[in-house]
């Protein structure tokens, strides 16, 4: 499955960057859907004040990634941010077998049905029963929310010390400039990519419309309430899995994309 989505030699085209020195490192890589649609992928590692590491949406575990991780600390948490961002859970579990794996409901069953490597989920987010805690050290630094109304069952995290929102498919920030910067290919070329970009950039209303209508009338009010709850968090940076990192004005970008939902939430209170 991974061979159809990611480059055959990810080490050559991956961008490893210190977003926050000694605290947050991103691993950005090319990612193609259907072999043509340039989306880009990104894994993020956060070093907690305890020295433990939390990994979000893990990417290919290359030698360079292993080296960078070893320089940061001990991997204690590995989170699949939704039911799609789980391809590399197996290799990471093998390399760091004591790490607690986090994911949304449905993912353990999906991996089993696909014949993926078995991994033990320590924490599973479900719609009917909120997850009260991950651990004291983790909870001290992160706010988190589960958004089951999203088609991919999103889990969103906010690292409070650095005011950094980390998510997968909740919000895109096209184009994926950094993620394709080592490929020699334009991140915006191709008809499918251009069409995709119209609905995944953060400038116009394309992404707002996509999110609004994809929820449907039944799920929309609850989705809106969850966006309103996330909007109350204090964040200035947003690290998406797809597209470039948003620095400084992340809250205003979030409010622009989720504006219709935030208005709906206000009317419902």
From TrEMBL:
InterPro entries given in the database record: DUF4336, RibonucZ/Hydroxyglut_hydro
Lineage top rank: taxon: Eukaryota
Pfam families: DUF4336 (PF14234)
Record's protein name: DUF4336 domain-containing protein
């Amino acid at each position: 499955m991974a061979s159809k989505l990611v480059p055959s030699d990810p080490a050559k085209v991956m961008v490893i960057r210190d977003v926050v020195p000694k605290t947050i490192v991103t691993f950005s890589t090319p990612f193609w859907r259907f072999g043509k649609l340039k989306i880009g992928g990104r894994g993020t590692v956060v070093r907690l004040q305890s020295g433990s590491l939390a990994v979000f949406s893990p990417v290919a575990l290359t030698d360079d990634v292993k080296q960078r991780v070893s320089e940061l600390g001990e991997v204690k948490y590995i989170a699949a941010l939704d039911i799609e961002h789980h391809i590399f859970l197996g290799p990471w579990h093998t390399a760091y077998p004591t790490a607690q794996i986090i994911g949304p409901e449905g993912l353990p069953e999906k991996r089993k049905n696909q014949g993926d490597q078995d991994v033990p989920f320590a924490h599973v987010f479900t719609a009917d029963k909120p997850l009260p805690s991950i651990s004291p050290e983790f909870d001290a630094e992160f706010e988190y929310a589960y958004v089951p109304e999203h088609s991919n069952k999103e889990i969103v995290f906010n690292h409070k010390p650095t005011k950094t929102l980390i998510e997968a498919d909740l919000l895109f920030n096209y184009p994926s400039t950094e993620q394709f910067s080592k490929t020699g290919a334009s991140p915006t070329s191709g008809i499918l990519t251009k069409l995709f970009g119209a609905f995944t950039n953060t400038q116009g209303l394309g992404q707002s419309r996509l999110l609004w209508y994809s929820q449907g009338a039944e799920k929309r009010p609850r989705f809106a309430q969850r966006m309103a709850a996330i909007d109350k968090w204090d964040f200035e940076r947003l690290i998406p899995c797809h597209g470039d990192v948003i620095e400084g004005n992340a809250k205003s970008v979030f409010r622009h994309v989720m504006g219709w939902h935030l208005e709906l939430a206000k009317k419902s209170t």
